[in-house]
Design brief:
Two copies of one chain form a homodimer.
Chain A lengths: L11 H12 L5 E10 L7 E2 L3 H10 L4 H9 L5 H8 L6 E4 L5 E2 L6 E6 H6 L1 H24 L4 E4 L8 H13 L4 E2 L4 H5 L9 H5 L4 H11 L5 E3 L5 H17 L6 E4 L4 H14 L6 E5 L4 H9 L6 E4 L1 H4 L8 E9 L2 E2 L14 E7 L5 E8 L7 E2 L2 E5 L2 E2 L6 H13 L3 H4 L9 E3 L1 H16 L1
């Protein structure tokens, strides 16, 4: 069985609380919202991602016999509760921003409305799925802003945090505008275009570099990208020039060379000159090695003649901001708005909507965070995506999501597009919501 | 099918290279070693972890019919190569440091010796498995050093990078000395003890906090840990004191209260006083919320009377060092030592062994990185764990691994135990290895 699909992929406290709800027959409808409390340093916006996996999870959630057995044997739960879990399904409603939507502090990107135990149990895995892809899509979007019109390829699987992280990073980076990923399984699983070149070991395994290049070109005649930094980058570029006519006779073109170490600006300039002098003006330069949006910007500003980039570890781990201060919080129960007052973590009560306003050129100018029942100007960003546990819309293809994400990025105001400077975006809180929080917190403090 | 077990969980270049090796009939034995190039800032040592999953992966690696179909349809590979992949198995030998071993820059923790295509294909997933658990075990070991004799529980699943990251983080933190995890599935999958309390939503769903506490205690009478910061921490502590006698009549003891926000030192001191005055001297204080080794040390140095800690996001993402500069590099092919000269990434050629020396008190005093064939003083850290694709030893239980990790941590020299100060550890390079690298790099530069 696929552990990633197990309902036990949750925190134990969800189950201990459920036992409490079960005994007290607390199953009125509850609303929970997922939002980010603060944007990390170095992020002017976030890009929502992970909804497809979240909805898939909710639709298929159930306890398998061996899982019930294990819970039973743990001695923590009553037999009646275990029987109840055997029939447990998610039958709630979900409202969400579509994947690829840009969002800001305190704006919910997803709301679950369901009988309390259902809305509660799913917290851990919902956060796990939405958080990670949002982290990665947001980082990838910054790479796209830093290197517009360049081919960007996700190279991060090996240092991603496990299997699912690697696969979902391939999905989230493509969604945010990358050209594809080196992770093969992301092809069949998510329709992400897959890219591959060669590693140093291929060169090392041969007695000489030229033979290695020749062998690789013979084996992959339609996709000849040669790694040239194993020993001496410029010497290898000269060997590429030497090899090219022999390959041309066999109908093989050298698509690109790859640089993976050293000063990439210097090497790219020298290699470009060597290739051009050798008549290989159509052979591109692809580069990798410790890249992220800051390094992409630096390379391009320095005039490095690089056509494409493999971006790996720092992207797939979102190294400068590997997590978000996000939460999935109860905002309503039994028809009454709810909040918590915990220091530094006060929440906005009630079911909320985000309205976004644009100027005539289609650029975003400001959002309003309001109660769902308020009537505000602008485009409402959340809409219903699940009813009674069933998705309300046909599944989108990932390339459709990607197109929308590109339109969303195009509407981003100029100051927020700068990857190096903090820029802020106006998110107003509607008066009705301010008033509700004030009244509710006074009432709770009196208790 | 479980995607985490798919052989397509690899980089495309492994397969394009394999097609080249296949066509050239390059299948002599190769040796590859996994090591870390540089320790990240804030790490005086690393703890090896992930070997069990790595060996399991190697033992079960094969191409499934639907995977071969997909590769065939991709149009990148020849039919003869696809047929070859259908029979592909890992039949190599593996040498490794046991999980829980402490290690340093350039020291291989694993060596694969196998026909070249076998040793090559497994690179991506081997790195993915060894890297992540090593990152997490190393971070968790620092938490253990910062809070000795305290109960530490992994709370990080929700912001771990996906399902496998959450599960393997539960495993790696327990291995490194944590008491357990809140991730339920880590129980049945890895025999990690599972812990759970309650969330704010449980309190919020009730009309008043006291009733919420009462209901939770009734549902989980053997494990009453009450979260007291939803509205007003000290007021809630007073309610706990009020509730205690009524629960005692029903034979229920309040094991602990949990703090999750605000100034934890202040709150813990005030709550301790309230509980003690109310006669609840046996009720512990458990704390969570943005913790890591630095914060654990700060809290304990400030005298916070806290008995246990839930450590989450910053641990499971290893927030201050979310990745390692690690590599899996070819060191030998066809009986000849190999290396690369890429700038800043020169490798040590040949099959290597790490020898560790101890003083009379059992404390580590220095390591030697040497060729396997050298004869050095000290304990050799790598030994054979797989022969011809089969594990050579019975599987260890995770608690055995954990015991070994604790013994290894106990042997760590004092300067390296300081989580706040950089400390260095002597790793000598044996003369034979220095000489080999010198000779080989001269030969390669002449080429």
């Amino acid at each position: 069985m696929d552990p990633a699909r197990s309902v036990l992929l949750t925190d134990l406290y969800q189950l201990t609380m459920l036992q409490g709800y079960f005994e007290q027959r607390m199953d009125e409808r509850a609303a929970f919202e997922f939002f980010v409390r603060n944007l990390p340093a170095g992020r002017n916006f976030l890009m929502a991602a992970g909804l497809a996996q979240a909805l898939d999870y909710l639709e298929h959630l159930r306890f398998m016999p061996e899982e019930l057995d294990w819970l039973n044997r743990s001695g923590r739960f009553t037999p009646a509760f275990i029987d109840y879990l055997a029939e447990f399904r998610f039958r709630g409603d979900v409202f969400a921003m579509p994947e690829g939507t840009l969002f800001f502090t305190d704006e919910p990107i997803l709301r679950v409305v369901a009988p309390l135990p259902q809305a509660q149990l799913v917290e851990s895995r919902l956060i796990n799925l939405l958080h990670f892809q949002t982290v990665i899509a947001s980082k990838a979007a910054r790479c796209v802003l830093a290197a517009p019109n360049k081919l960007l390829v996700d190279f991060g699987f090996r240092r991603a945090h496990g299997a699912e992280a690697g696969l979902l990073a391939a999905r989230a980076t493509y969604l945010a505008g990358f050209g594809g990923s080196s992770t093969v399984l992301a092809g069949p699983m998510y329709d992400v275009p897959v890219f591959g070149t060669m590693a140093h070991s291929f060169v090392q395994a041969h007695e000489d570099e030229l033979t290695a290049f020749d062998h690789f070109a013979s084996a992959q005649p339609d996709n000849v990208v040669l790694l040239i930094d194993t020993y001496d980058t410029e010497a290898a570029a000269a060997k590429v020039v030497e090899l090219a006519p022999r390959l041309r006779e066999r109908g093989i073109a050298i698509k690109a060379v790859r640089l993976d170490s050293g000063d990439l600006v210097d090497h790219a300039k020298r290699v470009r000159a060597i290739l051009d002098r050798g008549g290989l003006t159509e052979t591109g330069i692809f580069s990798s090695g410790s890249l992220d949006e800051y390094e992409l910007q630096r390379l391009l500003n320095a005039g490095a003649p690089i056509d494409g980039f493999g971006v790996g570890t720092r992207l797939d781990t979102s190294a400068d901001a590997p997590y978000l201060d996000c939460a999935y919080k109860m905002v309503e129960y039994g028809g009454e708005p709810r909040m918590k007052l915990s220091e530094g973590k006060i929440t906005w009560p009630g079911r909320k909507q985000v309205y976004r306003r644009y100027d005539d050129a289609g650029e975003m100018v400001g959002d309003t965070l309001a109660l769902e029942t308020d009537d505000c100007a602008g485009e409402p960003l959340l809409s219903q995506v699940m009813r009674n546990g069933r998705q309300t819309r046909p599944k989108e293809s990932l390339s459709e999501v990607r197109d929308r994400a590109q339109r969303r990025l195009a509407a981003l105001p100029e100051p927020l597009r700068d990857i190096a400077k903090p820029g802020s975006y106006p998110v107003e809180i509607a008066p009705g919501l301010v008033l509700l929080r004030q009244r509710l917190s006074e009432r709770l403090r009196r208790h």
